[in-house]
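Following up on my earlier thread - several people asked me to post the actual chain instead of describing it. Fair enough. Here it is, all 67 residues.
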Amino acid sequence: MKARKSEDLRKLNDADLSMNLKDSQETLTNLRFKKTLGELENTAYLATLRRDIARINTIIGERQRSK
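Reply from S.P.:
Thanks for posting it. Predicted structure:
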């Protein structure tokens, strides 16, 4: 899966960003379990997912500070 671009994430409203954050965090947790069990083939996706979560958190933080 490709990394999400910050421009695309900025177009989303707050509710969608929160939903994406929750989904990404759940996916990351599941992939960490799979990695531990040796079932994960693409370990690079973990780093991509962590960066996506950081992008989402950054955008949410920027919006909170601007209010």
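DSSP finds three helices and no strands in the chain. That should answer part of your original question.
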